[in-house]
Amino acid sequence: MKRNxxxxxxxxxxxxxQLAAKRSKDPSTQVGACIIDSNxxxxxxxxxxxxxxxxxxxxxxxREGETLDTKYAFVCHAELNAILNSKASDLRGTTVYVTLxxxxxxxxxxxxxxxxxxxxxxxxxxxxxxxxxxxxxLDSAGVKYERYNGGDKEITLxx
Length: 159
Known about the structure:
By secondary structure, the protein is α/β, with parallel strands linked by helices. Helices cover 28% and strands 17% of the residues. The protein has a five-stranded mixed beta sheet with strand order 2-1-3-4-5. Helix 3 packs parallel to helix 4. The protein is globular and about 60 Å long.
């Protein structure tokens, strides 16, 4: 008899996104993303961090201050990293699992690459202008998005 306590596909892919987020060096917000195709194959993962070749030690991680003294001018978001890291050039009709609802800039990339669905874990910036802009673009482009409806299952990894 097979075991019955295995994780669902949604739990699996959101878990991969959460695990990817653990790679982020950002002291305040760690975000992960996992892009899958219609056959439930993982095409790419990403997390928020500095661009390749830009040392995590040489760029700021602050949230406040002048633009060049904060992370915002430099950090590449998880969704964009997952898109850029994908070996598949065609992402039309795929789904991205992401631990934080995408900002307006990542939303543009999601739409441009043809990603058809977003499943997000957290929406803590829901009322910000960038999140409102993101939802407006997603609605206009017909990209579906839904909050992750997982349980409270806890999975511990020993590495």
